Amino acid sequence: MKKRVVIKVGSHVLSEHGALCDERMDALCGLIAELMGVYDVILVSSAAISAGQSKIDLKRDSVVHKQILAAVGQPHLMATYEKKMSVYGKKTAQLLLNAADFDSKHRSTHAKNLVFGLLELGILPIINENDATATAEIVYGDNDRLSADAALCFDADMLVMLSDIDGYYDSNPSENKNAKIRPVVNTLSEAEIASAGGAGSEHGTGGIATKLMAASMLLAEGKKMFLASGFDLSAVRSFLLDGKQNGGTIFEN
Ligand code: ADP
């Protein structure tokens, strides 16, 4: 049986100047197509808001504006994935979920049947938060929490987070130029997560704290999380395809 990975990509990686970044989406889709030969791959993709910004002129200055931008942008985001994955002969499918879907056994069983069915057919499931009824990830998290829920619910062996940062540092690298990357993290205390600070970039909303929360959820279930750069995919490629760690942070027990 193939190993299963959930890959979560942050909005900062997928977008640039209020639109989708074609070059980085090309690179990501190329890697996913390659990975699909070896792994069952489930993608959790942000960036519906940026995709929406390229379609309508609306500021992302309130929750409802973000919902509108995401609602307009989501089909554009999916159309972009569909087009880019078709180059590799791969089909895509959309799942809009929210935290409540994972809390309910009944609902998660339906979602599981769907995802497992898609994987069997070699179709790439692409998950995003359903922002119409749940805005938790829009406000806080940028799909970090959702991707951890998905990794656990869909029995993934590992969650791979592709971020604007290339790993977890011993202090905030945007404030401390001597910060050093931590290649391996075995445990995360609540105090460490709490001290990790607030939102990171302008487009991402979670910062490192929500990534550590996701890692902690996976560690508690004996699973792994790999955090690496989504701008330069060489670390994630060598980790997943060659079994070599040339960058990034692996969270494992
Ligand atoms: P994404 O948009 O990729 O989901 P975010 O921008 O939300 O990611 O979060 C990553 C950001 O968190 C980094 O760019 C960095 O500025 C910030 N950060 C704060 N502390 C740390 C740390 N200890 N290690 C790594 N990044 C950190």
TrEMBL record:
GO terms, molecular function: glutamate 5-kinase activity
This protein's UniProt keywords: Amino-acid biosynthesis, ATP-binding, Cytoplasm, Kinase, Nucleotide-binding, Proline biosynthesis, Transferase
EC number(s) stated in the UniProt entry for this protein: 2.7.2.11
Binding site for substrate: S46, D131, N143
Reactions accelerated catalytically: L-glutamate + ATP = L-glutamyl 5-phosphate + ADP
Functional pathway: Amino-acid biosynthesis; L-proline biosynthesis; L-glutamate 5-semialdehyde from L-glutamate: step 1/2
Keyword Zinc listed: no
Aspartate/glutamate/uridylate kinase domain ranges (all copies): 3-228
Pfam families per record: AA_kinase
Residues annotated for ATP binding in this entry: K8, S163, D164, T205, G206, G207, I208, A209, T210, K211
Compartments it resides in: Cytoplasm
Primary location: cytoplasm
Highest taxon of source: Bacteria
UniProt KW Ion transport keyword: no
Top EC group: transferase
InterPro entries documented for this protein: AceGlu_kinase-like_sf, Asp/Glu/Uridylate_kinase, G5K_ProB, Glu/AcGlu_kinase, Glu_5kinase, Glu_5kinase/COase_Synthase, Glutamate_5-kinase_CS
PANTHER family: GLUTAMATE 5-KINASE
Described purpose of this protein according to its UniProt entry: Catalyzes the transfer of a phosphate group to glutamate to form L-glutamate 5-phosphate.
Annotated family: Belongs to the glutamate 5-kinase family.
NCBIfam families membership: proB (TIGR01027)
Protein name (record): Glutamate 5-kinase
Native organism: Campylobacter magnus
